[in-house]
Design a protein that fits this description.
The complex is a heterodimer. By secondary structure, chain A is mainly alpha-helical. Chain A has helices at residues 2-6, 13-33, 37-62, 66-96; one strand at residues 11-12.
Chain lengths: 109, 166
Amino acid sequence: METLTNTIHGVPLNHYIMLCSIIFSIGVIGVLIRRNAIVIFMSVELMLNSVNLLLTAFSVYRGDATGQVFVFFIMALAAAEVAVGLAIIVMIYRNTNSIDINVLNRLKW
Amino acid sequence: MSTFYFIAFLSIFFSILVITAKNPVHSILYLILTFFTFTIHYILMNAQFLAIVNFIVYMGAILVLFLYTLMLINLSKDSEPRKSSLVKIAGFIGGACFLITIVAALKAFKMSDATVVVKDGDLGSVKNLGKILFNEFLLPFEISSVLLLSAMVGAVLLATKDPKTA
C-alpha cells in the first residue's frame, strides 16, 4: 500500500481536473446522443462518479478529510436516485412497452 | 506516476465504450470496468474508505440493480433505438464545447505547479473518516438515512403493479 501510494507523488492537480472533465463530458455526450433511457441513466452515473473522483483529489490535495465525507454522502444520494429512477423506468416500460425516450413526449408543451 | 496515466487512459477508454456500445448489457459491463478503474484511482490517492465503498456500493449494488432492470425489460423486440446522425453530431459538438470551456478556464486560472501529494497517510482511513462523520456530520448522516428510507418506499410504490388496473 505504501509503495503504491508513493507513486501518486508528482501528479499535477491539473491532470486530475482534466481527467474528470473529460469523463464528465463523455457523460454529457452520452446523455445527448443515446435514446435508451437506461444508457442515459448510466451516463448520469458516469458524471456523478467523475465529480466524486475530483472531490477526492481536492480533498487529498488540501489534506482535509471533509471532501471525502462529502463523496460518501453523494454515493448515498446516488444509490437513492438509482433506486427511484429504475423504478420509474420499469413503470414507463410497463405502460408504453418501450424505454425509448422519444416515446415520452406527452409532457411536451 | 505513470500508473496514474495508465489508469486514467483506461478510465477514458472504457467510459467511451460505455456510451458507444450498441448492446445495453455491454454498456453496463463496460461501466463496471470504468468504476473499477475509479476504485484504483481512490487506492492510489490512499482514500481507502472510499475505495471500499465505491467497490461495494457502485460495482456491487448499483450496477447489479442496472443489470436486473435490463433483464426485466425485454429489449429484444425493439432493437436499440437509433438517433439520427445529425442529432449525434450536434450532441458530440455540444459535449466537446463543454470540455473546451472547462479546459480553457483551467488554463486561464494558471495553477500549473500544484501537485497532489499524500501528506497524511491516515487521511482517508476508516478510523479518521468515521470520527469526522460521527462528530461534525452526524446530522447529515442521520438525514441521509431518512433519504434512503424514502427512496426505498418510493421505489416500491412506483414499481409495484396497481391491483385495480392489473
